[in-house]
Amino acid sequence: MSYKIAILGGGVGGLSAAHELIERGFAVSVFERNHVFGGKARSLYVPNSGTGGRRDLPGEHGFRFFPAFYKHLPDTLKRIPFPGNVSVFNNLVHATRIEVAQAGKPPLILTARLPQTMEDWLLAFKELFEGIGVPDDEVLFFADRLLTLLTSCPERRVSEYEQISWWTFVAAASHSAIYQTLLAEGLTRSLVAVRAQEGSTRTVGYILLQLIFGILTWGGFDRLLSGPTSEVWLLPWVQYLSQKGVQFQPDTTIKAFNSDASGLTSVTVEQGGQQAEISADFYISALPVEIMTGLVTSEMKTLAPSLAHLDSLRTAWMNGIQFFLKQDVPLDFGHTLYADSPWALTSVSQRQFWQQANLADYGDGQVGGLLSADISDWETPGILYGKPAMQCTAQEIKDEVWAQMKAHLNVAGAEPIRDDNLLTWFLDPDVQFPNPSAVTNLEPLLINTANSLQYRPNAATEIPNLFLASDYVRTYTDLACMEAANEAARRAVNAILTKTGSTQPPASLWEMQEPDCFKPLIEYDRLRFRMGLSHTSIGPI
Fold first, then answer.
1. Residues 101 and 138 both lie in one domain
2. Out of 32, 174, 208, 342, which residue is the most buried by the measure of CB atoms under 10 Å away?
3. pLDDT of 72-100, one tens digit each?
4. Domain that holds residue 159
């Protein structure tokens, strides 16, 4: 029997679920509210910017990057054909550096090294953060906090670290202002888009460690795509899935879930201004949490108590702005992290990675470089207008980001950011301005606040024919990102395989990797935890 699966949402989670299901013989349909598929990952082209037969300028919701700890999404990319390049996975380019920029100071460049023992790790952590102006004793304390996380058992991570904020765990309140700005706040806001005072230590701390592992052990912080996201990944993906038999339904808005005591009976959608009912054997919701929250009915909450508290999960803003330049400004071969910028900026100079795209083929042919920046803090006043991004116009947001980048990069006689080199710019259109006093965001990002794990459901809900494939689902990845959406999709598919008694192999899942040298201390801490004892923090060597 070929079971019919309706996937609601065509972002990374929905496409990942479709991929795993179609390769296992299911009949799959994907319903997406936008005209194009890919969700937050899709490219957002600048309307009417292409002339002379050229393509419109390529913008993004935010630059796409694939940290070294990603395992699920790269596995999927390896199974997406790409002409002349074997697979989409081959369109990933390793970034080898991170530039940590501070206003008015020369940048710090982070490169790889290979620690082998626990003592090596402490020294590596210390050296990683030396040179940024934080007092040595505070750097050592921060390194000790990281080692405490690494030597804690999983049970303690959930029982204790999920309950407290990162700000509390790293004792930010009792340390210097520069410690608070650069280590307690700067890293978390820029890398995981969450305020240190709110973010769960279990999420913020361990994702930060995974990113650091990428720098110290795996030869690079992350990987970036070799061209605009849609061109080198998403369009080939949709084409491959279409050829395999996936039915794609764009311009379809999910309006309501319909259920009875047995589960979901249908889903009401709107297409072309007309409402219709879709029915399937199983439903996978790949909708973002803020949309799903509004669709879950009281009857569904009764049937599936794990869905009853989705409204307790919080979202924040993380959106991109692109600066199209006359001449390229390569910066470092990787990310630039503006560690003390009020708006928690990060950026990537894209051209150096775009082996599959020529910028001269876009716009009017005059673009020579592209700086893609992410804004992770929309609530802190900026340096130009004294207003948070949420209270600015689009022009003010552009001016403010440009000014903050100048303050961090135009130092020590260098002037990479010049007004006369800027051709045009493009702000993520999800940021909308319905009136001068209000800014809205169509696609916010889930943030893992302290004690929020309890509100996050599993991929398989208590409703027997409803599954979830979105980044708020409980996963090993444990962060609102493409990797989590892909992993959640795999978990949903595996639950359907079990439910249907399928003999097809399950989709692979990978736990986060941590250095082997810490395993004995983790086992020791597990014993202490079972005895009701606190963690024995490691002191300086």
1. no
2. 32
3. 999 999 999 999 878 999 999 988 777 88
4. 116-214
Please indicate, yes or no, if residue 502 is contained in any of the structural domains.
no
Q: pLDDT of 168-226, one tens digit each?
A: 999 999 999 989 988 888 767 655 567 788 899 999 999 888 888 877 765 556 899 99
Helix (H/G/I), strand (E/B), else coil: 215:
helix
Angstrom CA distances, 489 to 186, 204, 283, 302, stand at: 31, 23, 12, 24
CA–CA separation, 436 vs 49, rounded Å?
26
Using a 10 angstrom Cβ sphere, with 0-12 exposed, 13-18 middle and 19 or more buried, the burial of residue 436 is: exposed
The residues pairing with 247 across neighbouring beta strands, listed in sequence order, are: 29
* 106 domain residue, yes or no: yes
Same domain, 362 and 349: yes
Domain identity same for 82 and 122: no
Question: 178 and 86 share a domain?
Answer: no
Share of the chain above pLDDT 70, in %: 94
Final residue before a domain boundary, out of 408, 443, 478: 443
Asked if residues 456 and 293 have their Cβ atoms less than 8 Å apart, the reply is no
Torsion of CA 401, 406, 408, 410, to 10 degrees: 170
Provide the 8-state DSSP code for 384: S
Q: Of 411, 443, 475, which one is at a domain's C-terminal end?
A: 443
Q: How far apart are CA 535 and CA 438, in angstroms?
A: 47
What DSSP line would sit under 331-366, residue for residue?
-SSEEEEETT-TT-EEEEE-GGG-TT--GGGBTTS-
Cα distance between residue 419 and residue 403, in whole Å: 10
Indicate whether 232 belongs to any domain: no
Whether 90 and 186 share a structural domain? no
Q: What is the mean pLDDT of residues 369-376?
A: 95
Which residue in this structure is represented by tokens 């980048």?
Answer: 405
- Number of separate domains in the chain: 2
- Start-to-end CA distance of the chain, whole Å, equals 63
Is there a domain that residue 409 lies in?
yes
Tell me what pLDDT residue 84 has.
Answer: 84
Q: How far apart are CA 426 and CA 517, in angstroms?
A: 46
Instruction: Report residue 45 as tokens.
Output: 């082209």
Q: Please report the DSSP string for 55-103 in residue order.
A: BPPEEESS--EEETT--HHHHHHTTSB-TTSSBGGGGEEEE-EEEEEET
Query: Hey, what's the torsion of the CAs at 470, 475, 480, 482, to 10 degrees?
Result: -70
pLDDT for the residue numbered 409: 95
Average pLDDT, the chain: 91
Task: Give the rounded distance of the alpha carbon of 531 from its chain centre.
Answer: 37
- pTM exceeds 0.90: yes
| b/e per residue 60-94 (b: at least 16 CB within 10 A) | bbbbbbbbbbbbbbbebbeebebeeeebbbebbbb
Q: Is residue 210 domain-shared with residue 81, that is, in the same domain?
A: no
242 has pLDDT over 60:
yes
Reading phi first (left if > 0) and then psi (alpha if -120 to 50, else beta), residue 363 is in left
Are both 376 and 436 inside the same structural domain? yes
Phi, psi of 528 (to 5 degrees): -60, -40
Average pLDDT over residues 310-337: 92
- 128 and 182 co-located in one domain: yes
331, 350 contact by CB (below 8 A): no
